[in-house]
Amino acid sequence: MTTAGAHAPADAGSQMQRVRMGRGWALLLVYPVLVALVALFVAYPMMNLFGRSLLVDQHVSLARIASLIADPFTRKVFWNTLLLGATVAVLGTILATLYAYAMTRVAIPYKGTFHFFAMLPTISPPILMALSLILLYGRRGLITYGVFGVQTTNLYGFWGLVAAQLISYFPFAYLLMLNLFRGLDASLEEASSTMGANAWQALRTVSLPLLVPGLAGSMLLMFSYSFADLGNPLLLGGDYPVMSAQIYLAIIGMYDIPQGAALAVILMIPAAMMFFAHKHFSAKASFATIGAKGSSRHRLVTHRPTRIGALLLVGGVTLIICLQYATVFAGATTQLFGINYTFTLKHFAAALTKSRGALLDTFALGVASAALSVALGLLIAYFVARSKRPGSSALDFVANLPLAIPGTVIGLAFALTFNNPPIALTGTAIIIIIAFTVRSLPYGIRSGVAAFGQLHRSLDEASTTMGATSGQTLWRVLVPLVRPALLAGMGFAFTRSVTTLSAVIFVVSPHWSLVTPTILSQMDRGDLGEAAALSVIVVVMVLFVIHAVPRFFGRDWRESR
Question: Which stretches of 313-426 are assigned E, i.e. beta strand?
Answer without folding.
Answer: 334-336, 340-343
